[in-house]
Amino acid sequence: MTSIRIYDLTGRDDRRPSPFCWRIKYALAHKGLPFEAVPVALTDIPTLCGGGHKAVPIIEDGSKSVSDSWAIADYLDEAYPDRPRLFSSRAERELCRFVEISLFLSAGTDLFRIYVKDIYDLVLEKDRDYFRKTREARLGRTLEEAYAGREARLDAARAGFESFRLTLQKGGPFLSGGGGPFLSGERPGYADYIVGGFLLWIGSVATVPLLRADDPLLAWFERVRDLHGGLGRTSPMNPIAA
Amino acid sequence: MTSIRIYDLTGRDDRRPSPFCWRIKYALAHKGLPFEAVPVALTDIPTLCGGGHKAVPIIEDGSKSVSDSWAIADYLDEAYPDRPRLFSSRAERELCRFVEISLFLSAGTDLFRIYVKDIYDLVLEKDRDYFRKTREARLGRTLEEAYAGREARLDAARAGFESFRLTLQKGGPFLSGGGGPFLSGERPGYADYIVGGFLLWIGSVATVPLLRADDPLLAWFERVRDLHGGLGRTSPMNPIAA
After folding, report:
1. What is the DSSP code string of A154-169?
2. pLDDT exceeding 90 applies to what percent of chain A?
3. Which of A186, B75, B206, B239 is the most buried (most CB within 10 A)?
4. Interface ipTM > 0.90
5. Does B98 lie at the interface with A, CB-CB under 8 angstroms?
6. Which helix (H) or strand (E) holds B40?
7. Which domains, and CATH codes, for chain A?
8. Sign for the pseudo-dihedral over CA of A158, A159, A162, A163
9. A173-190 confidence digits (pLDDT tens)
10. What DSSP line would sit under B178-207, residue for residue?
């Protein structure tokens, strides 16, 4: 089997910030498919695979290239049906979309503002102007304005992970089942890769730790980092908790 | 096949408020299992099935009785494996738990306060003192205090459903797939029954409609009410939208 190539957004010091690339690296490992992660700059994306792809991840599998993390996940289950599935049913896929949407609504927007300046500081030199211009347009303010006073907003962002904490918790207000060790139950699944990839993004740039040292998410996150031969430890990370 | 009996919380005018009973009635219908919904008073629960059950739903299947909606759902998939499954995998079950937890965190607590007085007004006469005492203890305030000024809090509660709206939406900020017609994709699943049962609870009591008339959730909710021969139209409801 030839190795699948995944174009993986890179920053300074070989940091790999993209949460969407992380989930696909986990998806490839979950399916036992050998892959090569090729570091790319943000501004080089339009030149990859003959052009036409707007964002990473992009995978190249032989002569075929696919972008968009959901399209890639679907492709992998279709092209490699005999490998462990990412989604055992359409319902499971749609519920993973709900996980992504919940995560972005409850924590994503807040965290982007809190960490966007940290991301910028680790962006490759050639990407810096493009990053600042596009992200400031999206935020409607400068990176420095988004970042100002962020310590006061961290607690609200932390609270945005409460539904994941409770899903992993045994007992408590939601008594039936649960207890992890993974969001997907006894074995890790795509929901773990979505949320884990999100925390790997934060960890790859954060100069202020996201989680408190006693956050029950931390044990789960360390488990996710250990998966697939320690995939979540293969690029530089700052402390995620303190 | 003998009919399964489900003890179903009832209020005045044969209203059926319990969201947990609703999801199990849908689960039974989903599996094609004939059932009889037996109306019960809140204060009669301890006398049912020889005692020992703290809450409804309780099902009786031959000589076996099971309570707790998650335990019942698991029982139904185990006892009737050849019928359509509620959960195609352990991951799908855990993700449905995440749906429940997200729903309760983002909207449940707010809505309980907003509608608790409406619930009380439709509680059976024999349950009224018990309901007021236990619910006021849980709320840390009187039912009237919880209810005061509720119109001002409705918009925040409505916003708590945003992740479900976006999951059902085709296109928009989350582009890949989706578009419903159900939360579980092309066919309804347990996640639809959890959220649908929750809205049936609100609808069974609400004297102020929860949703705006242009809420995209509404079309989905009407679809869920139509399922399984119009199961969601089998007890009196107030308008859910205006």
Report:
1. HHHHHHTTHHHHHHH-
2. 89
3. B206
4. yes
5. yes
6. strand B35-40
7. 4-79 (3.40.30.10), 90-233 (1.20.1050.10)
8. negative
9. 665 557 789 999 999 999
10. B--SBTTBSS--HHHHHHHHHHHHHHHH-S
B122: closest CA among B201, B229, B214? B201
Contact indicator for A173, A205 with CB cutoff of 8 Å: no
* Pick among B98, B190, B192, B194 to test the A interface (most A CBs inside 10 A): B98
A189/A127 Cα distance (integer angstroms)? 33
Predicted pLDDT of residue A180: 85
Beta strands in chain A (DSSP E): 4-9, 35-40, 58-61, 64-67
User: DSSP state, B170?
Assistant: B
Phi, psi of A19 (to 5 degrees): -65, -30
d(CA B199, CA A114): 35
- Model pLDDT for residues B230-242, shown as the tens digit of each residue: 999 999 999 999 9
Picking from B24, B67, B87, B94 by the largest number of A CB atoms within 10 A of its own CB, the best residue to mutate is B94
Contact A239, A225 (CB under 8 A): no
> What are the tens digits of pLDDT across the range A76-102?
999 999 999 999 999 999 999 999 999
Nearest CA-CA partner of B102 in B19, B22, B161, B28? B161
Eight-class DSSP state of A23: H
Residues in a beta bridge with A60: A5, A65
Q: Which residues of A fall within a CB distance of 8 Å from B173?
A: 104
Residue among B101, B184, B185 minimizing CB distance to A167: B101
Rounded to 5°, the CA angle A32-A33-A36 comes to 130
- Collapsed DSSP state (helix, strand, coil) of residue B223: helix
Residue B74, C-beta contacts closer than 8 angstroms, at least 6 positions apart = A177, B93
Residue B189 tokens read as 């699943």
CA A214 to CA A144: how far, in whole Å?
Answer: 30
Confidence of residue B2 (pLDDT cuts 50, 70, 90): confident
Contact residues for A216 (Cβ-Cβ < 8 A; gap 6+): A165, A168, A169
Smallest Cα–Cα separation from A17: which of A98, A99, A135? A135
Residue A110 CA: distances (Å) to CA of A102, A106, A159, B28 = 13, 8, 11, 41
Tell me which chain A residues have a C-beta less than 8 angstroms from the C-beta of B97: 167, 174, 176-178
Q: Which residue of A has its CA nearest to B94?
A: A184
The C-alpha torsion from A101 through A106 and A112 to A114, rounded to 10°, is -170
From the CB of residue B240, how many other CB atoms can be counted at a distance below 10 Å? 20
Residue with tokens 């409850």: A106
